[in-house]
Amino acid sequence: MSTSGGVVRRSLLDDLATSMLALIADRKLSVGDQFESVRSLAERFKVAVPTVREALRRLEATGAVELRHGSGVYVGPNVGRLVLANPLALAPSADRLVELLQARALIEPPVAALAANTRDAAALEQMARDLATAAELIASGDHARLAEVNMDFHRSLAQASGNATLAEVVESVTVVNAREQLEILHIHGDRQADLDEHRAIYDAVQSGDSDLAELLTREHLDGVLAVINQRLQHP
User: Fold this and answer.
1) Nearest Cα residue to 202 out of 174, 160, 173
2) Domain with residues 94-233, CATH architecture
3) 68 beta partners
4) Could you read off the pLDDT of 214-228 as tens digits, one per residue?
5) Is the CB of residue 32 less than 8 Å from the CB of residue 6?
6) Quick one: which of 200, 94, 188, 88 has its CA closest to 146?
7) Among 17, 20, 108, 203, which is most exposed with the fewest C-beta within 10 angstroms?
8) What is the pLDDT of residues 114-123, one digit of tens each?
9) CATH code 1.10.10.10 region(s) in the chain
10) Residue 211 burial by Cβ neighbours in a 10 Å radius (0-12, 13-18, 19+)
11) Total-model pTM
12) CATH assignment, 12-75
C-alpha cells in the first residue's frame, strides 16, 4: 500500500511541476523573472503549500526555478532546456571517464561542422574570448581556471551550431566530467598545444570550413582520449 501511495505522490509532484513549467511558458516569463508565490500556486492548483514547495524543489534541482529565501520564486536558467546532466551524479570512474570522452569524440566533431556552416555570431565572439582568457591563464599558471575555460570553449563551439538541443547535449556531457577536467589537463600535459588546437578549430569555424572544423575537433578529442587511455594502462 505504501509503495502505491509513493507512486501516486510522485505522479502528483511530477504533474504539478509540469503544470508550473507550462504556466511559466504561457506567461512568456524569462530567466530571472519573478514567478507566483508559493501560496498563490497552492491556491491555483488546489494543493497544500508543502506539496507546492516539494514540487518547486524538484524544479530547483534542475535549474528551472530558483527559490530565494525571503524574496520568492524566480525563473531559473534551465527553464527551457530539454537535456540536463544529473545534478547528483557521482564523480565518474576511470572507465566511465573514458566513455564520456568517447561520447564527446563522436558528438562534437559533426557539431563543429554545423557550427562552421551556421557561425552564430554571439557564440563566435564567446569562443574568441575563451581563447584569449585561456592564453592569459596559461601565462599566469592558473591551471584550475584554465580547465574551466577549456570546457567553456567546447560549449561555445556547440552553441555556434545554432542548434540549442545539440548545444545542451554537449554542455551536459562536459558538465558531467567537469570535475575531472583538471586531472585530464595534467595528464594531457601540453597546455599550449591544447590552446593551439582550439585556435585552429576556431579559425576553421570562423572561415566556414565545415570539413576542417570537423576533422580538427575529432583529432583534438581523439588525441586527448589516446593519451588518457595510455596513462590509464601505464600509470
Assistant:
1) 160
2) Up-down Bundle (1.20)
3) 72
4) 999 999 999 888 877
5) no
6) 188
7) 203
8) 999 999 999 9
9) 12-75
10) exposed
11) 0.70
12) 1.10.10.10
